[in-house]
Structures are given as structure tokens and as C-alpha cells.
Amino acid sequence: MNLTENTLPIQKQTYDDQAFEHLFKAHYKELHAYAGVMLRDEEMAEEMVQGMFMKFWEKRDLLNIQSSVKAYLYKCVYNDCMNYLKHQKIKTKYQDFAAWSMNNEHEAASAKLELSELEQKLGEALNELPEHCRTIFQMSRFEELKYREIAEQLGLSVKTVENQMGKALRILRLKLADYVTLLTLWIPVVIMYYRNFFN
Predict the structure, then answer these.
(1) Looking at 20-24, 104-108, 111-115, which range is the least confident one?
(2) 196 and which of 94, 99, 111, 150 could share a cystine (Cβ 3.0–4.6 Å)?
(3) Cβ–Cβ contacts within 10 Å for residue 181, how many?
(4) Nearest CA to 20 among 64, 66, 55?
């Protein structure tokens, strides 16, 4: 089968070493250029595309591509690049906040203690969530993904994502009931901290 064709659908294609090498050579250059435009960083674009092909190879037996191979590869590179850019943005914001905190001589010791305690309790509460529930909550709140985007990435229905989010929020409200006031005061800071932590 010609791996560069754009016919629909393409299902359960077998990718042996030779087929994968052909796929890589046929699309690497244009995908690298595409990632380079998004990231404005040639080295990172190269790393991003190579990483995408590595994941493609590792999951080749599970693939069931419903669009053209080319479109699928572009979508994978786009998603990886967007996630990287989001992470960099969050990282920068957190670094700015950390620098501001260190230079702010008037920050009260009690406020630091409250934030530290809240971070600890929130971390404990998150760790006690069921794994699936926690993953969806983190993608929604810390990566700012929409339910539809989460559903696509995890291969779930939007309804399932909504139900898991509702479950996560109910559990967290119960476990953090004694920290409602602190959450109201510190939630922007804590979210920034955990966005950086979980990415």
C-alpha cells in the first residue's frame, strides 16, 4: 500500500520496518518544516517530529487511522507542538511568579505557610483520585483543554469526560472542605504551581 496516498479510510495498516522507513522518509521533511513554523525553533521541531514518529512506531499495532496517514501525522505533530507551547507558557508564568515571590520582602510568613499547606493538601487530594479521574482533571484544569480535546486525546466520549470531571470535583470538594477559604484566596497561585508540576 502506498503510504503517501490520501484515500479514506485507512484501517489496521501494518507498519513493518520497511513500511515505517518509507513513511518516515516520505513525510519527515515537510513535518519538520511544519513544526518549525509553529515552534520557531529548528532543533525543537526536529525533536518534536522524531518523538512523534517514535510514538507512532511504538503504538503501530494499536492504530486504526480513519483519515489519510498524512493528515494523521500532521494532527499528531500539531497536538504535540501545541502541548509544548502551552507548557512553555505555563513554565514562564510560574518562573515569573517565583521570582516575584522571592523579591517581595513584604510577603507575610503566615501567607507562605498557608500556601504551602494548601499545596500539600491539594497534592494529597489529587493523588487519591482514581487515575482516570485525575488525568482528566489535570488536563482540564492545568492544561486548559476543552472536554472535546480531552476526549479526542484519550479516545473517550465527551460524556465520559464530563462524568469523570464531575466525579473529580465532588471528591476534591469533600477532601478539601476544610480549606474552602484558602482555596478562594490562593487558587490562581496553586493552579499555576500544579500546571507546571504536572507537565
Answers:
(1) 104-108
(2) 94
(3) 9
(4) 55
pLDDT given for residue 180 in this prediction:
56
Residue 182 phi, psi (nearest 5): -65, -40
Alpha-carbon distances, residue 21 vs 15, 18, 51, 76, 161 (angstroms): 9, 5, 15, 18, 36
Query: pLDDT digit string (tens) for 20-49?
Result: 888 899 999 999 999 999 889 899 999 999
Task: Retrieve residue 96's grid coordinates.
Answer: 515569573
Q: Which residues of 87-111 are buried (b: 16+ CB within 10 A; e: fewer)?
A: eeebeeebeeeeeeeeeeeeeeeee
Cβ neighbourhood burial of 45 (10 Å; 0-12, 13-18, 19+): buried
How long a stretch of residues is the chain?
Answer: 199
